[in-house]
Predict the structure.
Amino acid sequence: MTLPVTGSQTVGPFFRIGMAPLFRQEVAPAGTPGERVTVQGRVLDGDGAGIPDATIEIWQADTRGRYADAGDKEGSFRGFGRVPTNEKGEFRFTTIRPGAVPAPDGSLQAPHLVVIVFMRGLLRHLLTRIYFADEAANESDAILKLVPADRRHTLIAARNESEAAFEWNVHMQGESETVFFEA
C-alpha cells in the first residue's frame, strides 16, 4: 500500500501558487516619469547553478526619492514588484531609476532598489540591495560604506550595453555570495 505525501513531507513553499497574482515584469508602468532601466540576472546556488523557483521582490522610490504612499493620488507608481525566476534561475524586470532617498541621519542614500529574496529551503527571506554601477553617489552611501570594500561588487549592477540592461546576480552561497542585510 502506498500512502499519499502529507503537507509536512513536501518541499515548499510554492511561490508560483501563492504569489503568482502579484508577479509583474514592469515594476514601474509605462509612462512613469524617469529613466527606464531593465535589470536582469540569475539567482544562483553555491555551485553556480540557477535556482528555478526563487522569487525576488523589489521595493523602490520614485525619481524624486519618495516611496509610494497609499494616499498619493498623483500617479500609478507603486514602487513594488515580484519577479519569479525561470527554469534557469533567470529574472528580468523593467522600472525607472530611483532618486536618492533620505537616510535616518538626514543625508542622502545613493539611488538603489531594495530586494527581498524568497526561495525553497529558505525559512526566512533575505534582504539585499541593487545599486547602479554608473552612480557617483555610491561613493558616499552610508550603507555601502558598511560593507567591506571587497564585497561591495555583489550589490552593484553593471551596465550590459549589448542587452541594454543592468546585470545583477544573486549568489546564495560561495565565494561571490551576495551581501544580505538583517531586517
About this structure: The chain is about 5% helix and 30% strand. The radius of gyration is 17 Å.
